[in-house]
Write a structure and sequence with these properties.
Length: about 300
């Protein structure tokens, strides 16, 4: 269990608070007992716990006996959040029908290559001779999400080599699907959106990271999709594809709001407001030595975007 706190010199520090082996079960009640004992032993006050962030495991999130619920029973003002994004729920489960079909085809394509050692060796030899950028495709099934962004990007980059491979292996249905410009366009979008989610997930895992730091980078939003849009031979970024993309982004926004809610708490503590949203803090309300840095931060267009 790690703790993040404001030290005496007004800097935010992060340290290991406690680490203890769970001898038998590891449900929320078990974890809570360890925390309660530690708080009691070291005379820590629950009312000073402003926020509580879990890793999203079932033992942490149960509505009745989950750790987050038990913490809020002691201090209802504590804000609870989930640290790691469950991308399978956040992105794949929110896909509109057409995009979900494109994802299904993508999975079938990669699994077709990795279905046997012979197929894999044949394909490696094939695109090695064709000077393709990647030497292997990342194996993927619906339960292996960590490399999904990489898998989709590599599939897109190897799409021409893949078409030759499918013809050679007599996989006519998959060849027809991959040759469909609409499917190709949707795979490009999926490669981009999952790459962003993978990157965001890694950012959230960084030590000492905060929500503000996770928003600093300004992306070229859909570079893979842009490759096809800019190609004069591709005129298939049709209105229905655009609507699917917009609908997916809308649902993603709703899911992000659920993961990272704006709690709307009126907070007169300037330090907490600086952490939550420094753009709303009046410069005159902070210490003089911090005012210049706050002005620079509030005028940073990259941070605002």
């Amino acid at each position: 269990m790690f703790v993040r706190f404001l030290s005496g010199d007004n800097t935010i520090k992060e340290e290991l608070l406690l680490s203890q082996v769970l001898e038998t079960t590891s449900i929320g009640v078990d974890v809570m007992k360890i925390i309660l004992d530690y708080f009691k032993k070291h005379k820590l006050m629950w009312e000073n716990l402003a926020g509580f962030c879990t890793d999203g495991a079932p033992a942490m999130l149960g509505s009745r006996s989950g750790l987050a619920t038990l913490v809020k029973q002691i201090n209802p003002t504590t804000l609870t959040t989930h640290y790691i994004i469950h991308r399978q729920a956040l992105a794949f489960k929110t896909l509109p029908k057409d995009l979900a079909f494109a994802m299904k085809i993508s999975i079938q394509l990669v699994n077709a290559v990795e279905n046997s050692a012979l197929n894999t060796r044949v394909f490696q030899k094939l695109y090695a001779n064709m000077d393709a950028e990647h030497e292997i495709l990342l194996f993927h099934t619906e339960t292996r999400w960590l490399t999904k962004g990489n898998m989709l990007a590599r599939l897109f980059e190897l799409r021409e080599e893949m078409k030759v491979f499918l013809i050679d292996k007599g996989m006519n249905y998959l060849h027809e699907q991959l040759s469909e410009p609409k499917i190709e366009m949707q795979i490009a979008y999926l490669a981009d959106i999952f790459a962003h989610l993978n990157h965001l997930n890694l950012q959230l895992q960084g030590s000492g990271n905060v929500k503000l730091e996770g928003s600093v980078k300004n992306y070229s939003v859909f570079p893979t999709l842009r490759v096809l849009i800019d190609d004069e031979h591709y005129k298939c970024f049709t209105e229905d594809i655009q609507n699917n993309v917009l609908e997916h982004l809308r649902v993603l926004k709703e899911e992000f709001t659920r993961y990272f809610p704006e709690y709307g708490v009126v907070d007169t503590d300037v330090v907490k407001k600086l952490i939550r949203n420094p753009f709303t803090v009046e410069v005159n309300n902070v210490q003089e030595e911090m005012q210049v840095e706050l002005i620079d931060l509030q005028n940073d267009s990259n941070l605002k975007s």
